[in-house]
Amino acid sequence: MKVKPRAYVMVSVDADTVVIGAREVKNRLAAEIGQRGLSDEVRVIETGSFGPANAGVVVAVMPDEIVYGNLTIDSIARLVEEHFVKGRPVRDWILQGEHPLPDPETADPRQLQHFGRIVLDNCGRIDPDSIEESIANDGYFALGKALTEMTPAAVIEEIKESGLRGRGGAGFPTGLKWSFCASQKADIKYVVCNADEGEPGTFKDRLIMEGDPHKVIEGMALCGYSMGATQGYIYIRGEYRLSIERMRAAIDAARKHGLLGRNIMESGFDFDIEIKIGAGAYVCGEETALIESMEGKRGIPRVKPPFPAHKGFRGKPTNVNNVETLANVPFIIRNGSAAFRAIGAAGMPGTKVYTILGHINRSGLIEVPTSVTLRDVLNDYAGGMQSGTFKMAQLGGTAGELLGPEMLDVPLNADALAKTGHALGSGAILFMNVTIGVCDFLHACIKFFAHESCGNCNPCRNGMAALLELTERLKKGKGYPGDVELMEELVMEMKSIAFCPLGQSPAAPVLSALRYFRDEVRAGIDPSAIRPKPDHTLRTLLTLGKQG
Amino acid sequence: MTVGEIVKKHGNDRENLLSILHDIQAGSPDNSLHQDALEELAKLMKVTISDIVGTASFYTMFSLKPRGRHIIRLCESPPCYIAGEENILAALERKLGVTLGGTTADGMFTLEATSCLGACGVAPVMMVDEEVYGHLTESKAVEIVERIAVV
Questions:
Q1: Each residue of A340-377: pLDDT tens digit?
Q2: Phi–psi pair at A367, nearest 5 degrees
Q3: Domain residue ranges of chain B, discontinuous segments joined by +
Q4: What is the pLDDT of residues A415-429, one digit of tens each?
Q5: Cβ contact, residue pair B78, A201, below 8 Å
Q6: pTM greater than the 0.95 cutoff
Q7: How far is A459 from chain B (nearest CA, A)?
Q8: Of all residues in chain A, what percent carry a pLDDT higher than 90?
Q9: Nearest by CB to B121, which of A16, A298, A448?
Q10: CB-CB: which of A241, A436, A451 is closest to B82?
Q11: Are the Cβ atoms of A239 and B127 closer than 8 angstroms?
Q12: How far apart are CA A522 and CA A482, in angstroms?
């Protein structure tokens, strides 16, 4: 007779924890539980990350709602003996802080709202390699609903109504974007999921793909149905091995279950997905560069218009969305746009997934309503600063802006931030204490851009080289008088004339740094330094003026 | 696999160029794309060699220069930077006797910098071949290199 397990032990296995031995811990746990004859009662499940990073190998025991952190294979014997044989949790190893985890036994859709998670509701709760567990947790329910009860136009209308905006950084209304592609007449249309997550400090898409790959597939299929697209591609960074593995397994499973392929759920709708693997180029996150790369070329952004909705992959209408955006779609179709609008801020409803990092007590993955402030994130989710006082936070990765202490109370959504002259960006928050110098940090940011500049347009290619010199001088305290103004002018120029968002990006960290820390940047100038003639920086700029 | 077999596996459609280059490089003894292999590829795909070199040189994961048996990719993006990446780099440069981008005289290691590996939860991070190592300290980074050098 099959016994219903009394406990589920969920081992969080993602690319971070694999590095520190999560698989070994999981195997040892299963072996130890087997040796004790508890295999029927206690089930060990491999899940994606459910949030905490920097806490070693994390294991959650459900329904006890106990989360252990920093486990090693040596701790397993004691853990099993105490917790599962004697029934006493090992207090010393329990991870402190809030880790809201839903109960795996009671899958009630209303729980999602209770826990405030739309995108990550299954991450850490289900086995990502099991399509059955996804289906048991409402996976593909929205697709079934759309295919049987809704017209494609009704799907687009629902997404428009929901107010969903792109979660890749630009925040464009998703329903509107879909309608562009839907209105095109073509023999074939494509849906592309942008999983070329290269923004430093951002790895939310990786954890979504590793934790709940079926949600991404379902979002893509819904997108395809709404606009009459029959082929989907997911473009994943070459460095994301585990994401590629799990997405590939999930696509195969969905095909076997008739949830991808021909005549899905006997509705007459055909849709399939293929994986494209990147080769290391940040600029490929820009949608037209991504399409070029998918076609096997250099990933150089195209001139827009024509936009991908008219001429995209192979010259056909193509809709490109970020992983997180697509992962929001099943919830909206399943529960209706009103349920989605009820969460978060009015101008940008729903939740936002962030990776929170830096000098904080609890770094990791969080999903929060779009109405929370930076201070809420720091105090309630990050557990405050680990050491030193808060100096600044960079919002949205390296191409994001620095926010000083006076911005702690701004709500983290596109509208509220725009009012204060800021942008939301990709979904990373890097908290920094007073030990980090602004010039040093700017130099690290520019180093990244200079490396990733694709070389296509002059303002970006030469501008980055000049910025690299400028920030290096300022970092060493050897800036020439006038360097700060030069840097300011340069990034503004690049913002207005660079070909794609990459070349426009340095303006965000540089101008915001000057807004909050101008005096500190100025301190990088050596008043006695005399600008050499000819000045190398100025010469690069001059070339820029002539050719750019 | 020979270049011909790799092209056959993927098809000689332009769209498959990146996958083909990934496979060619993986099969090379020094982690790089050789001129003769690319020339053969150009013929098979019916494109010019400059087109192929132009595409390959665009992407960080491909190298046209011979590299060491093992490739160390140290992340130098801001989250790793604030966690002390510069000290790790200095320690690795001292240990290997090369500067960034260089290959050790014995052809064992190439030291490269990389953009974000998306493993910021365990910063600072480096990738050696396919393996990611996190929570690096100067001594831990050196130890990892020593351990690999013995194998």
A1: 998 888 889 999 999 999 999 888 889 998 989 999 99
A2: -125, 120
A3: 3-58, 70-150
A4: 899 899 888 888 899
A5: yes
A6: no
A7: 18
A8: 61
A9: A16
A10: A436
A11: yes
A12: 9
- Closest to A414 measured CA to CA, from A193, A196, A164, A199: A164
Domains and CATH numbers, chain A: 7-106 (3.40.30.10), 131-341 (3.40.50.11540), 351-432 (3.10.20.600), 438-547 (1.20.1440.230)
| Interchain pair A15, B118: CB under 8 A | yes
Closest CB to B55 among A202, A237, A298:
A298
Q: Does A69 touch chain B (CB under 8 A)?
A: no
Q: What does pLDDT average to over chain A?
A: 89
What pLDDT sits at residue A3? Answer: 57
> Is-contact A490 A463, C-beta < 8 A?
yes
| A506 Cβ contact list (under 8 Å, min separation 6) | A445, A446, A449, A463, A464, A467, A491, A494
Q: What residues contact residue A288 under an 8 Å CB cut-off, 6+ apart?
A: A301, A302, A304, A308
CB-based contact, A394 to chain B, within 8 Å: yes
Note whether A277 contacts B22, CB cutoff 8 Å. Answer: yes
The residues with which A9 forms a beta bridge, in sequence order, are A44, A61
Compute the nearest-CA separation of B58 from chain A (Å). 6
Residues A81 and A195: their CA atoms lie apart, in Å, by 42
A318 touches chain B (CB under 8 A): no
The C-alpha of B79 sits at a distance from chain A's nearest C-alpha, in angstroms, of 6
- Residue range B70-150, CATH number: 3.40.30.10
Distance CA A9, CA A267 (A): 39
Q: Positive or negative CA dihedral for A453, A455, A458, A463?
A: positive
* Alpha helix (H) residue ranges in A349-482: 374-376, 414-419, 438-452, 458-475
Measured between alpha carbons, how far is A191 from A221 in angstroms, rounded to an integer? Answer: 9
- Which residue(s) pair with A194 in the sheet? A235, A322
What is the rounded CA–CA span in Å between residue A327 and residue A281?
Answer: 24
Distance from C-alpha of B112 to C-alpha of A547, rounded to nearest angstrom: 32
Cis peptide before A369 (omega within 30 of 0): no
Contact B60 A441 (CB under 8 A): no
On whether the CB atoms of residues B6 and B23 are closer than 8 A, the answer is yes
* Subunit contact B118:A20, Cβ cutoff 8 A: no
What letter would DSSP give residue A427? S
Which residue in B12, B13, B16, B18 has the most chain A C-beta atoms within 10 A of its own C-beta, making it the best mutation to test that interface? B18
Q: Which residues of B touch A299 (CB under 8 A)?
A: 58-59
Spatial distance between the Cα atoms of A377 and A412, rounded to a whole number of angstroms = 9
Give pLDDT tens digits for A262-278: 999 999 999 999 999 99
Which residues in chain B touch residue A198, judged by CB atoms under 8 angstroms apart?
Answer: 115-116
Determine which of A19, A248, A282, A390 to mutate to test the interface with B (most B C-beta atoms within 10 Å).
A19
Instruction: Identify the helix (H) or strand (E) that includes residue A335.
Output: helix A323-335
User: Whole-angstrom Cα distance, residue A308 to residue A317?
Assistant: 6
User: Which residues 2-31 of A are in CB contact (within 8 Å) with B?
Assistant: 15-16, 18-20
Task: Residue B115: list chain A partners with CB under 8 A.
Answer: 198, 200, 280, 282, 448, 451-452
The residue of chain B nearest to residue A429, with distances taken between CA atoms, is B79
Q: What is the pLDDT of residue A6?
A: 80
Residue B8, token pair as written in the block: 């056959």
Contact (CB, 8 A) for A219 and A328: yes
